[in-house]
Amino acid sequence: QSGGADHRPTFLVTGATSGVGEAIAAELAVRRARVLVGARTAERGEAAAERIQSRVPEADLQVVAGDLSLMREVRSLAYQIMGSTQRLDGLILNAAEARSQLTLTDEGIETNFATNHLAGFLLTHLLLPQLRSSGPARVVAISSSVHAQVRMVDLNSVVTGAPLTPDSYRTSKLLNVLFVRELARRVEGIGITANAADPGFVRSNLGRHAVGGHRMLRALSRPMQSSPERAAATAVYLATSEEVARVTGGYYANGHRMELSGLAKNDQLA
Q1: Which sign, positive or negative, has the C-alpha torsion 203, 206, 208, 209?
Q2: Rounded CA separation 195/179 (Å)
Q3: Is 169 a known active-site residue?
Q4: Exposed (0-12), middle (13-18) or buried (19+): which is 182, by Cβ within 10 Å?
Q5: Do 77 and 66 meet the contact criterion of CB atoms below 8 Å apart?
Q6: Of the residues 169, 237, 251, 252, which is catalytic?
């Protein structure tokens, strides 16, 4: 750790080894933040850190590894972070899966739900004391406009994936929005803000597990997808801009606060 690193804000970016997550990590490094590069494995993390360092030679990076589809590894990741840094000024919950077929983790949880929502929920709660002591601090969850397509949420079905597998990704993105809204309410007044960012339709490897028509659709729409760097802008804005330093519980796209769907505004569901 460099001599001046203690004075730099420290951010954890989950899923920072490709696409939007790597772009967010790189932009935070450009802004002279210390970045904890969240990766599924140390090898993937080190490769991403090397790519970022090649573009941002002065980057202050540390790889932290854990498979966020498994809650035991989410806990391990939190303990790694608690043991390696005193400060945590921001948490960017970016790690995600978009499986179009039902897959359960070996803990018996539907994979999209486990990775996209439950991991961020648990990680945030485990790191909340550190965020609070470092305050003002910010939590940013990467959601999606597809959250507005969800018409009903049965949490029992969400956990196991049956019978809503085709909608599990969209549902997980709705849960991201509900999470930041309820988190914002619960941490109000203790120096922590929570907001959701929509990166838009972006070129990434998020659909790497897609099959059949889902895979074909992603391939055909690739020319319309934005770059990871452009997609990262809203999350970086929410994590760093003074304009939103005291804004919380919002859902943002293209740097602007957006109207929520009816379910996303449901306080009881949140």
Answers
A1: negative
A2: 9
A3: yes
A4: middle
A5: yes
A6: 169
